[in-house]
Amino acid sequence: MVDNGRGQVISWYICTVTTVPFVCMRMFARFKKFGRLAVDDYLILLAFCCLIGDLAIQQHMWNLGLGDLSQATQEDFKGIMKMIVPGSILYVSSLWAVKFALVIFYKRLAAVGSRLSMIYNVALGGLAATYLVIFFDILFQCYPYDKRWSTDPKYQCDPKAAKINYWITIFFNIFSDAIIMILPIAMVSRLQMKLKQKLGVASMFALGFFVIISSIVRAYYSHRNETMLTCTVSMVESAIALIIACLPALRSMIIGGSTRGDPSSYGRHYELSSTGARKMTGNRASISGLGSNAHTSSNARSGDPNGSEDSLVTDGMSTLSSEREHHGIKVETTIQTIYGDAIDEQSKAESSKSPV
């Protein structure tokens, strides 16, 4: 082979190995904080397994001559084409598992029943729909599968079907990445916190730009039928997505913050109330939005990994908390903070209502 792409194969392994410490640290942080994993953690593990499976398939394809298809035998070419469908499914599954994990994580940070929570529910539904569309299109765009390696011009895949799959995958992938990146940045911009903190948290989500760039580069090489480069960029894209998905869970572990059973974790929160009002609550009082109460989640106290101890912002005792119901029980705490002459007026009102 003139150029068998050995350097690109090495880069596949580098991408995969690079994700290992991030995934391990995320799982360690979750176990240390909550004692068990949540749904988004299992999705991250699924994405990582799909990445390893995709690596194994690409290695097998390279062994058969993917680096220089002109030198591959008909039997080797047949073996390579047989791996297209499972490889594509693993690639898409890895990316969508990360997308689902991120949206589920963000949803826990929004107030229960809020408009933002509903938006994330819609996003989850959209992800499910787009994944199913791409999944079934990969399965049936060229069926029966032996059309992929047939030498008969009348019994081959329809080029139009391949173009449709190309544009569906590219559009859904890039569009969903952009939405998933924008939504949490918009949420952070509404919080009452220091500008430096906002920029720090927003920049963590802005790393999603690298995933979008990778998707665009992959689309370019895929359009040019540069199979080796397409495989390489696919590994880079999946690895970056996995690493970015692990960063929010690792932030409190690296910087430091509340741990399970630490009562100080409820001292001060940056919250989004159920009406969208942003308030910072102190150790003594929680100020609710108009017409709504500030909820104290029992999940966080019990160390539930789906509860409100998930945080994006760690500033001493500060966390960005969610508000949830636990086993059908919701504890509501409403504390009014009254200043100045309002105290005397409230005292008089209460005295007038008391029995003589």
Q: Can you describe what's shown?
A:
By secondary structure, this protein is mostly helical. It folds into 2 domains: 6-255, Rhopdopsin 7-helix transmembrane proteins; 263-353, no CATH class. The protein contains 11 helices and 3 strands. The chain has helices at residues 6-34, 39-63, 74-82, 84-109, 115-140, 159-189, 195-206, 208-223, 227-255, 298-302, 342-353; strands at residues 268-272, 278-281, 318-319. Strand 1 and strand 2 form a beta hairpin.
The topology string of helices and strands comes to HHHHHHHHHEEHEH
* Widest sheet, order of strands: 2-1-3
User: Roughly what is the average pLDDT, rounded to an integer?
Assistant: 76
Percent range for β-strand residues? under 5%
Kindly name the structural category.
mainly alpha
Return Rg in Å. 25 Å
Strand segment tally: 3
Question: Roughly how much helix do the residues carry, as a percent range?
Answer: 55-70%
What general form does the structure show?
elongated
Write the layout of secondary structure elements.
Blueprint: H1 6-34, H2 39-63, H3 74-82, H4 84-109, H5 115-140, H6 159-189, H7 195-206, H8 208-223, H9 227-255, E1 268-272, E2 278-281, H10 298-302, E3 318-319, H11 342-353
Parallel strand pairs: 1-3
Antiparallel strand pairs: 1-2
Domain Rhodopsin: 25-254
Family: Belongs to the SAT4 family.
Keywords: Membrane, Transmembrane, Transmembrane helix
